[in-house]
Amino acid sequence: MLEIAIIVSIAVALFLLLKNFNRTKNLVPESTVIETKKDSKMFKFWQKWTSKRQQKNEEEIKEAIRSGQSGIVSPREIQDAQDSFDAADPRVAKLLFEANESLLMHDFKTVEEKSIEAISIDKRCDQAYAFVAQVAMSRNDYADAEEASKTALKCNSENGMAHAILGEIYLVKERFTEAISEYQKAVNLDRNNAEWHAGLGKSYMQVRQFSKAAKALKRASSLDIDSKEYRDLAFEAEEKQRAHANAFRR
């Protein structure tokens, strides 16, 4: 008898559960479900959102750039590239945009390919030469980097990247006065580049101008608050500045 009672209780419970499920389902009008399926705007939005998520995958972006898919660069981005890189030809602007995106991912092979293609279209494309110089720097080929940077500056004396690359080359070669000069020109053109301010500060440190070094390095640290290197260098410059000042008072 007890077993029969248990079976009956389970059957009743399942019946009530199924009944409540159907009642809940009926609360959503059938027309709403159908409308959702037929709503092309929603479907397009979902497609676009999914596509954007997929494009965040670094390897897919690299492959898209390598294969030259035109859809990877929007007309707005090409216009922005034309304005940023002062490129009159939209084909050159597109190539520079792709080279810049590749540079951010340290894909130097693609940077070089896109830059050389841009130069083949416009022999006076200063930013393309600057990108070529950056590729040479990634290989520690200072001779080619210096030549490409100087070519960029012949095309446009206000190319900040080219000045900064020369500054880095001269810092490595211990030509500190020239390094300071080039880095100063770079930061004058872009006051918000932490790396260039840091390069200027490091150069001042080498000639024991600790006050100027501290100022440049603190600026770099304020622009890149996550950089422990810049914070430590700024602190070191301030410490040496105080020690240097105290030595003069004695």
How would you summarize the topology of this molecule?
Blueprint: H1 2-26, H2 30-38, H3 40-55, H4 58-66, H5 75-85, H6 90-104, H7 108-121, H8 126-138, H9 142-155, H10 160-172, H11 176-189, H12 194-206, H13 210-223, H14 228-249
| Helix/strand order, N-terminal first | HHHHHHHHHHHHHH
What is the residue-averaged pLDDT?
79
Please bin the fraction of helical residues.
over 70%
Percent strand equals under 5%
Number of helices: 14
Describe the structure.
It is built from 14 helices and no strands. Helix 6 runs antiparallel to helix 7 (108-121), helix 8 packs antiparallel against helix 9 (142-155) and helix 10 runs antiparallel to helix 11. The chain has 250 residues and is mainly α. The protein is elongated and about 60 Å long. It folds into 2 domains: 65-157, Alpha Horseshoe (Serine Threonine Protein Phosphatase 5, Tetratricopeptide repeat); 160-250, Alpha Horseshoe (Serine Threonine Protein Phosphatase 5, Tetratricopeptide repeat).
